[in-house]
Amino acid sequence: MKKQALISAIAASAMIAVASFAIAQSASDVQTLRGADVDEPIGVEDVFHQDKQRFTRNYRQQPPLIPHTIEQYQIDLKANRCLSCHDWTTAGERNAPTLSMTHYMDRDGNQLDRVAGTRWFCNQCHVPQADAPALVDNTFKSSGN
């Protein structure tokens, strides 16, 4: 008898939960956070542009910021577009900064003739620079000040 009452209570709870969910979904005053349907494209303003001048580094050993767009750059397991200009074999003719020699060292400190796998994904450390306002107020001061 107790087992049947427990099963009935669980079934009733499940039905109430499903009904509540259905009512919440059908409520007309519920709006999406983006203000549009999921399949509706939303235009985003392009507010911040790349600066042509390089930003100074804010702390010792900060990875340099990228002074150009990398929007269409392919960086995956098969290709790395950054290397077409910044690899030591092409940087001189492209008038681009050469990668640090640390990018050509493996985990054990052995010198390689190609970029190490641990340094292959450039945008894990380097990001495009933008003169954008801080997202959160802070009191950070550059070590150069």
Automatic annotation (TrEMBL):
Subcellular location: Periplasm
Cellular component terms (Gene Ontology): periplasmic space
Signal peptide: 1-24
Source organism superkingdom: Bacteria
Post-translational modification: Binds 2 heme C groups per subunit.
InterPro entries: Multihaem_cyt_sf (IPR036280), NapB (IPR005591)
Protein residues bound to heme c 2: 103, 122, 125-126
GO biological process per UniProt: anaerobic respiration
Keyword Metal-binding part of the UniProt annotation: yes
Main location: periplasm
PANTHER family cross-referenced by the UniProt entry: PERIPLASMIC NITRATE REDUCTASE, ELECTRON TRANSFER SUBUNIT
Role this protein plays: Electron transfer subunit of the periplasmic nitrate reductase complex NapAB. Receives electrons from the membrane-anchored tetraheme c-type NapC protein and transfers these to NapA subunit, thus allowing electron flow between membrane and periplasm. Essential for periplasmic nitrate reduction with nitrate as the terminal electron acceptor.
Protein name listed in UniProt: Periplasmic nitrate reductase, electron transfer subunit
